[in-house]
Design a protein that fits this description.
The complex is a heterodimer of chains A (about 250) and B (about 650). Chain A is mostly helical and about 250 residues long. Chain A has seven helices and three strands; from the N terminus they run ααβββααααα. In chain B, helix 5 runs antiparallel to helix 6 and helix 6 runs antiparallel to helix 7. Helices cover about 60% and strands about 0% of the residues of chain B. The chains are: A mainly alpha (about 250), B mainly alpha (about 650). Chains A and B meet through helix 1, helix 2 and helix 6 of A and helix 4, helix 5, helix 6, helix 7 and helix 19 of B.
Chain lengths: ~250, ~650
């Protein structure tokens, strides 16, 4: 699906033909409409994944569980450690979701949306002279390369946190095969992670273009704009996932 | 199949003279084409080829059921036959036949020179072709999918369906979904953004309107089945537990996800045919469509309600009174906009100067036969009635009346109607008449008795039945009906092939119709419109040629005539073929990159099969290799200029 958007993203009439502008009914560029349609479709994709997760919440026959304490040798489940009866300390499974750690990665991902906005603004205002006496910070703020790379790095940081989370879950005994929670959790967050990965690659491609020839002008603004739309969408989906899967017990 | 379509339409001498000078011919020109008309033609040829495949499957099924205790095929082969018949007809025939018309007609009807993303369009076609071949090939090895077109899990999990059969189905559908989604984004953008000056939304031809609605159904419904298929793939290949009942999984999860897609899919199949009928009926009644606005709104209503009725496929699973009631009421509601359409078509014909061409007969047959299918549909919207009918031949009768009597009849009408536009020649009306009557009689003889055998309790999907249950006569009639349809199909194929060379030459306005596609030569030049027409009403060509016919319709004033593009002029008819370069119209370069991108995508998916052949390293090599090749061809595609 990332394919569809990527191809749509570049299949424009106007690209490289600044002098020949095609008539469009709305005055908008085709690619922008296509990306919105794509995002609409993606909403249904994540809606299906999230509903499945919620339907299967609490239906797993064996642990580990997201928010509850469990026992490797019995079917006992409890909300707190104290309530867990008759389980030797070696067999205790603690709640697997680590909300403080994931809150950090959530913060990083949400901040990347800010960086994305600044990247787009930097491309839009490129060519405007900086105010007199502009310092390091002003130059940074106006640098599309800086903000594109910053967005990509924050996305990559989120992915780093996710791989740490996945690995530690596997060490604690939760894999995609363990129980319904494992299957639906890894599939849902994995799908989101794949979307972030596609976004990071997209951002790095834009960064490479920016380094090579400099992103500038109306067509390039659109190029960054559609990537930004996608990136914000991926962020918004994470807000839904973080709230529904991590925060609500 | 691509090669069978190789003769370029431009090679036949036409009334308009020689074809555009820059037009290329030969196989290469078809492999590398990004022209929406050629892609539409490829869709048409490919889907008709699959129609023959699906028809042969149906024929063998009917031979097996002709007599009690039939011995034509084994139970296992029978399972594969009914699975592939359903899958083929839904995903490889009706959807792509509709796509053929989307491709060919939407840009012509809205006054555009191509779709929004011509290369993405080529990509959609190639993914469809390779995906279709991928699903059909295992028939020859006796390993075709055998779990029904609905593929209910947990029946289709490894525990109950080992072997590669279901793998082909689940991977094949995933591939076809990519094709449909990519095409839908393309057409949504095309319709929103590429209408000619003055072509407001409420002036668009109804076919374009219905297609527009269908694209939204596609992008919103396909993700649900995509996810259902992902779960099934993960269960089968990676050991997840989505459909593992022992692990606590919900046995209805698949059914819900499948029908959330599956019911909108029904409207994806029928709305384009409705659109075609709405073009044919006014033309041959010499009257504007009755109640255009209501037609549009009822189409939107159908699309909207179509998302709220999916569980009427599941009344028999015991969802409880509340759910049954809600879905039953929603299902009854959806009969209203559909009924409105039927009455509007009848009112369109009422008092018109009707010409009974073959296309018109097919369109009228759609109105009649879809009504029968619609009425039996309203019957099983009531859960108590449905419990008697579920999984019997009554249901088979119902959905063949809507899909064959509705979709196929409408599409056949569309083929006879638009053939002169596509080729510059008419199909033979004489053979066409035989084709129509054989189809009409054969269709009713096949499917009407199924109502009775179903009421008498004959279950679907059984490969044989015993004597003495009162089903013999009805089954025998059904089989004879299929033979009659087969004769009709042979005549159609003959007519379709022969008329390309020897049919009567057709002018640009082949039938005296009123919409934009008829204001340009047949077949249309590669650039479609030398000058984009400025549209001021719903039937611009009738405004020009028969103003008395559209006197009662709204027309915009001169203010809306403002020409916003240097190529646009007031509404006019074009009869000459010119060269795009001479006209200064930039045309997209032909490119084979979308084909390779599609090929590597399909090969990448097929690598999964080797996991179940216990060749994990091979699977990994194929998938990584093809993924790299896919990214490479995608990069090549995106970095080369379009025009």
């Amino acid at each position: 699906m990332a394919t569809a958007v990527a191809t749509a993203g570049h299949d424009s009439h106007a690209e490289g033909h600044g002098e020949h502008v095609h008539y469009t009914s709305t005055g908008l560029e085709n690619r922008k409409i296509a990306v919105w349609a794509f995002i609409g479709s993606e909403c249904m994709l994540f809606a299906s994944l999230i509903s499945t997760y919620l339907i299967y919440k609490g239906r797993s026959r064996v642990g580990p569980w997201p928010h509850e304490w469990g026992c490797k040798t019995s079917a006992a489940v409890a909300k707190t450690r104290e309530l867990l009866q008759g389980c030797s300390p070696a067999d205790v499974m603690k709640p697997i979701l680590d909300i403080p750690v994931t809150s950090q990665s959530t913060f990083v991902l949400l901040m990347s949306s800010l960086a994305m906005v600044l990247a787009l603004a930097a491309v839009e205002t490129k060519g405007t002279p900086l105010p007199a006496g502009a310092g390091w910070w002003d130059r940074c703020l106006a640098s599309s390369k800086f903000w594109l790379m910053a967005t990509a790095v924050m996305g990559a940081t989120f992915l780093g946190y996710q791989s740490y989370e996945f690995t530690s879950f596997v060490h604690e005994g939760l894999t995609i095969k363990t129980n319904l929670f494992g299957s639906s959790f890894f599939t849902l967050t994995g799908f989101h992670g794949a979307h972030v990965t596609a976004g990071v690659l997209w951002l790095l491609t834009l960064f490479a273009i920016d380094v090579k020839r400099g992103l500038k002008g109306k067509t390039d603004v659109l190029l960054v704009d559609i990537c930004a739309l996608y990136w914000h969408f991926v962020d918004v989906v994470w807000i839904a996932i973080f709230t529904l899967i991590y925060l609500i017990q | 199949m691509a090669t069978t379509a190789a003769p370029a339409p431009g090679q036949t001498p036409t009334a308009g003279g020689s074809y555009a000078a820059g037009e290329q011919t030969g196989i290469w020109s078809w492999l590398a084409t990004v022209d929406h008309k050629r892609i539409g033609t490829l869709y048409l040829w490919t889907a008709l080829s699959f129609f023959i495949v699906g028809g042969i499957e149906a024929f063998i099924i009917r031979l097996q059921l002709m007599r009690p205790n039939g011995q034509v095929v084994s139970a296992e082969v029978y399972n594969q036959l009914f699975t592939m018949h359903g899958t083929t007809m839904v995903f490889l025939v009706i959807m792509p036949l509709s796509a053929a018309f989307f491709n060919y007609l939407i840009p012509l009807q809205i006054g555009a020179r191509d779709v929004a993303f011509p290369r993405l369009n080529a990509f959609s076609y190639w993914v469809y072709l390779f995906g279709g071949v991928f699903m059909t090939i295992p028939i020859f090895f006796g390993a075709a999918p055998n779990g029904g077109w609905f593929g209910y899990a947990p029946l289709t999990t490894m525990q109950f369906s080992g072997g590669l059969n279901i793998d082909f189905w689940v991977i094949g559908l995933q591939i076809l979904g990519i094709s449909s989604l990519a095409a839908a984004f393309n057409f949504i953008t095309t319709i929103i953004n590429m209408r000619a000056p003055g072509m407001t939304l409420m002036r668009m031809p109804i076919f374009t309107w219905m297609s527009f609605i269908v694209q939204f159904l596609l992008i919103l419904a396909f993700p649900a089945i995509t996810i259902a298929l992902v779960f099934l793939q993960f269960d089968r290949f990676f050991g997840t537990q989505f459909y593992e009942i022992a692990a606590g999984a919900d046995p209805l999860l698949w059914q819900h996800l499948f029908w959330v897609f599956g019911h909108p899919e029904v409207y994806i199949l029928i709305l384009p045919a409705f659109g075609l009928a709405s073009e044919i009926l006014p033309t041959f009644s010499k009257k504007p469509l009755f109640g255009y606005n209501v037609m549009v709104y009822s189409g939107i209503m159908i699309g909207f309600l179509g998302f709220g009725v999916w569980a009427h496929h599941m009344f028999a699973v015991g969802m409880g009174a509340t759910a049954d009631t809600i879905f039953s009421m929603a299902t009854m509601l959806i009969g209203i906009p559909t009924g409105v359409k039927i009455f509007n078509w009848i009112a369109t014909m009422w008092g018109g100067q009707i010409r009974f061409t073959v296309a018109m007969k097919f369109a009228i047959a759609l109105v009649a036969l879809f009504t029968i299918g619609g009425i039996s549909g309203v019957m099983h919207s009531s859960p108590p009635t449905d419990l008697q009918q579920t999984d019997t031949y009554f249901i088979v009768a119902h959905f063949h009346y809507v899909l064959f009597g509705g979709s196929i009849m409408g599409i056949m009408g569309g083929i006879y109607f638009y053939y002169p536009k596509m080729t510059g020649r008419y199909m033979s009306e004489k053979i066409g008449n035989w084709h129509f009557w054989l189809f009409f009689i054969g269709m009713n003889l096949t499917f009407f008795p199924m109502h009775f055998s179903g009421m008498l309790g004959m279950p679907r999907r059984i490969y044989s039945y015993d004597v003495g249950q009162g089903w013999e006569t009805f089954n025998f009639q059904s089989t004879i009906g299929v033979m009659i349809q087969g004769l009709g199909l042979i005549l159609f194929v003959y007519n379709f092939l022969k008329s390309k060379k020897t049919g009567a030459v057709a002018p640009g306005d082949a039938w005296g119709a009123g919409t934009l596609e008829w204001s340009i030569p047949s077949p249309p030049p590669e650039y479609n419109f030398a000058q984009l027409p400025v549209v001021t009403s719903r039937y611009p060509l009738w405004d020009l040629k028969h103003p008395e016919m559209t006197a009662g319709l709204a027309h915009s004033g001169p203010d809306a005539m403002t020409v916003t593009d240097s190529h646009a002029t007031p509404m006019h008819e074009e009869t000459e073929y010119k060269n795009a370069a001479d006209l200064g119209i930039p045309m997209p370069f032909p490119t084979i990159k979308p084909l390779f991108t599609a090929l590597f995508l399909v090969l990448m998916f097929s690598g999964l099969l080797f996991i179940h052949l216990d060749l994990f390293p091979v699977a990994l090599t194929i998938m990584i290799g093809c993924a790299a090749a896919f990214v490479g061809s995608l990069y090549g595609w995106l970095t080369s200029p379009l025009e």
